[in-house]
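Friendly challenge for the regulars: who can give me the C-alpha cells for this chain first? No prize, just bragging rights.
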Amino acid sequence: MDPNHYRFRGVWRLAAPATAVYAALEDVRSYPLWWPEIREVRPTGEDSGDVVVRALLPYRLVIGLAAKRRDPAAGVLEVAMRGDLAGWSRFTVTPDLAGGAGEAGGPSGARGPGGPGSRVLFEEETRPGKPLLRRLALPLHPLFRANHAVMMRRGRRGLAAYLAGAAAG
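First reply, four minutes later:
Bragging rights claimed.
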C-alpha cells in the first residue's frame, strides 16, 4: 500500500434535477457559498483556478484546478489537480429516477421541484504535493481519509440546501 496514494469514490443523492446539480457543480466560483470547507476560489484562467480548502484538520490546502472534461450531455465534470494535491477529480451527474435525497444508503423518495432527483458519482485519485502531508501519510492515513469523508458529507448537505434555496427563490 502506498500511503501517499488516495482513491476516493462516493455517491450523493439529491432531490434536485440533474441539470440543476450539474450547473451548480460547474460553477466552481460559487462553491464557498455552499461548501464550508472551500474557503476561497481564485480564477487563474478561463478554465482554471485555485481553491483554498480547510477541513477539520488544522491545515490549509491550495489546489490548482484545470478543466479536463466538461460534458453536460454525459453529466461529467473532470479536473486535473496540482499544487498541495496532485491528480484528478470527477463528478458524474445523472438523473436518479428513484428520487434519492440522501447519501448512498440514506433516505430516498424525495423529489425536487423539477422532477426526479439526481445521483452524483464522485471519483478522485490524488497524491499530496505538500511535503508535510507526504511525511505524515503513513501514520495519519486513516485520519486524512476520515477528514475527506467529513468534507464530502458537508459538501453534499451544503449543495442540497443551496439547490433547495435556489428552487424556492
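Confidence is low (pLDDT under 50) at residues 103-114. The radius of gyration is 16 Å. Your move, everyone else.
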